[in-house]
Amino acid sequence: MLSGPLVNDPERLELRLGEIPREPGVYFMKDARDQVLYIGKSKCLRTRVRSYFRDRQHHMPRTLVMVMQVVEIEFIVTDTEAEALALEANLIKQYQPYFNVLLRDDKKYPYLCVTWSEPYPRLLITRKRRQSARDRYYGPYVDVGLLRSTVNLVKRTFPLRQRPQPLFKDRPCLNYDIGRCPGVCQQLVSPEEYHSTLQRVVMVFQGRTTELVDLLSNQMEKAAAELRFEQAARLRDQIRGLERLCADQKVALPDDTISRDVIALAADDKHACVQIFQVRAGRLVGRLGFVADAESGTTGAILQRVLEDHYQSVDAVEIPAVILAQHALPETEILADYLSRRRGRKVTLEVPQRQTKADLIEMVERNAEYELARTQAVADRQLQALQDLAVILDLPDLPKRIEGYDISHIQGADAVASQVVFIEGLPAKQHYRHYKIKNPLVRAGHSDDFASMAEVIRRRFRAYGDSPDRPRLGNPDWPDVIMIDGGKGQLSAVVEVLRDMNLLEEVQVVSLAKKREELFLPGASQPLATEPEQPGLQLLRRLRDEAHRFAVSFHRQQRSDRMRRSRLADIPGLGHHRQKQLLASFRSIDYIRVATSEQLQTVPGIGPQLARQIYEYFHPQAEPAEDRLSLATPLAPDQD
Fold first, then answer.
1. H or E segment at 375?
2. Is residue 414 located within the same domain as residue 522?
3. CA triplet 302, 303, 307: central angle to 5 degrees?
4. Do residues 179 and 215 share a domain?
5. Any idea what the CATH number is for the domain that residue 86 is in?
6. Cα(411)–Cα(585) distance, rounded to whole angstroms?
7. What are phi and psi of 475, to 5 degrees?
8. Is residue 264 located within the same domain as residue 362?
9. Residue 233 predicted with pLDDT over 70
10. Contact 74, 28 (CB under 8 A)
11. Three-class SS state of 251
12. Burial of 475 (0-12, 13-18, 19+ CB in 10 A)
């Protein structure tokens, strides 16, 4: 544990600030638990860090909360500002500091994911961007319908993997017969050849469709000249599909042959909706959307942060030659230098004031304003629900973080619990947690929801009970409301645990019963007087339903894993490692059951004897081969 906050010790603060050099680099803000609160960059480290501790009354509330928790400051010096920018991006991805959250993951906007981490990658439309070293994400796309139609057309034009898992074990499905799939499930195409096809497909989502059409046209002419007419016909069909994509789904812009990205935003006091229009060879090929915290900086700072976040996650070929911004960026030269180095050619950032470029900015801004209006409507409904919940529970302030808990099992078997979190009325899935119930008395045939819920709450708040001085105020991990899925029994079990940990007075606990949707408070014999359609009660219902869904899905996963493990674990000589190899090779118990002894022997570590034991386990009525042979062979006549 480190010492107290620096703001409470001016002498130590000045000493630490004096140790920071006046050079470009990256700085870390750490709290008392040595966790990174914030990571930033600057061309002069000492000046930037010192600004956090001067004139604190002018800081935004979010920044002030962070500064009050800073116990230690560390830094890394770089040679240039561009190096500091790249290093900052990598460190933020590594540490995920809480106060670095500028862009929120808006689930309205889906991404296209190419799973390069798999031998035969897939095209996935997902609303959750996972950090992966090899998978690539494109987006987020504002027009979901356009994205889906583009993916469908691409899959009809190019032979790509169509299914996440094979439909048949020993033969390809209909997609192979009609030319939609190259036979990935049976490895009828090599990974190298498949990757070559997919790299062409990716060019569509990089805005390089015209370049791809030219490439395929050259290949088609070459194939025709060499009398390879079947291949030329396939290339012709692919070109037609891409031309149809350009004609039907893109918007042409006049007199524009340069690749450009145009960025603009519309903001109110809380939200900033940012739009990026991607213009390639005179066509609008993509419209990306982001939602930012308007209180996190000026409009120029928000636009710069969005551009940094976007271009750090794309390939170099996707960076355009010109970027048009609605407002001047605070560090234009640093960003332009960084992007130019990544692209290998000069990148220019402009703030247009007139003519065609200004018209582009106006079009993007108008789209951002429509998105802001939608965001404001959603925010108003959320605020109304939070205000109503504060009235129902008699809270002094609006609840920011609400946690919901539920238990799931079948007669005590595979008992698990869920913790879901809503922040400002929206699900924050990065804070969801699963729990496996460890109570030995909770087992198959004997359930105890009260004891299970008490165990989960004790484990969740154990760190606060063990450390009474651990801060609650301003701590993003501390809930304002805890909602228990259940009646007065579950609520009483939770209240007892929190009272033992001396935490009951610091958090509001409620329970929501399923049958009559009744809301109970600790110590109350009667439910609160509420109306079924009250916004606050509806918010708790959504939280309860999400906790139930999350718990049930985890319970089903645990039950499925147990059933898979238990059947294979009964086979003599088959250890855990070989069980995993079998399942990895055959995908399911059903395939293992129908496999022959020879097929089982193809799995590494499965010899003839063990393969026969596995086969006989699933076929207990099967007769040994020598017995079948002896029964089928007629007896020789007795010799006199």
1. helix 355-393
2. yes
3. 115
4. yes
5. 3.40.1440.10
6. 33
7. -80, 120
8. yes
9. yes
10. yes
11. strand
12. middle
Q: Give mean pLDDT, residues 453-479.
A: 81
Helix (H) or strand (E) holding 151: helix 144-157
The beta strands (E) that lie in 428-476 are given as: 433-436
Whether residue 12 is found in the same domain as residue 119 = no
Phi then psi dihedrals of residue 468, to 5 deg: -60, -25
Answer yes or no: do 187 and 327 share one domain. Answer: no
pTM over 0.90: no
pLDDT at 330: 86
Looking at the domain assignment, is residue 638 inside a domain? no
Predicted confidence band of residue 421 (pLDDT cuts 50, 70, 90): very high
Radius of gyration of the chain (CA): 31
Q: HSE-up of 494 (CA within 13 Å, CB side)?
A: 31
Q: Is residue 637 in some structural domain?
A: no
The confidence score (pLDDT) of residue 324 equals 93
Return left, alpha or beta for 88; rule: phi > 0 is left, psi -120 to 50 is alpha, else beta.
alpha
- Please report how the helices 355-393 and 535-569 are oriented relative to each other, as an axis angle in degrees rounded to 10: 90
Q: Which of 403, 378, 377, 431 is nearest to 540 (CA)?
A: 403
Determine how β-strand 348-350 pairs with β-strand 322-325.
parallel
Residue 474 is part of a domain; what is its CATH number?
3.30.420.340
The answer to whether residues 225 and 115 belong to one domain is yes
Q: Pick from 14, 262, 309: which is nearest to 137 by CA?
A: 309
Rounded distance, CA 474 to CA 480, Å?
11
Contact predicate 412/443, CB 8 Å: yes
Q: Is the pLDDT of residue 60 over 80?
A: no
Say whether both 408 and 543 belong to one domain: yes
Of 285, 339, 330, 282, the residue nearest 310 (C-alpha): 339
* Structural domain contains residue 106: no
Distance CA 27, CA 88 (A): 9
Q: Which of 427, 437, 480, 431 is nearest to 457 (CA)?
A: 437
What single-letter amino acid sits at 42?
S
CATH at residue 344: 3.30.420
Domain span holding position 266: 260-311+319-374
CB-facing half-sphere around the CA of 298: CA atoms within 13 A:
8
Q: How confident is the model at residue 212 (pLDDT cuts 50, 70, 90)?
A: confident
Domain count, the chain: 5
Do 333 and 441 lie in one domain? The reply is: no
Closest-CA residue to 457 (of 415, 421, 403): 403
- Cα distance between residue 81 and residue 71, in whole Å: 26
* DSSP secondary structure, 79-140, as one string: SSHHHHHHHHHHHHHHH--GGG--EE--TTS-EEEE-TTSSS--EEEESS----SS-EEE--
Q: At CA 310, angle to CA 309 and CA 313, rounded to 5? A: 90
How high does pLDDT run on average in the chain? Answer: 83
Higher pLDDT among residues 492 and 107, named by residue: 492
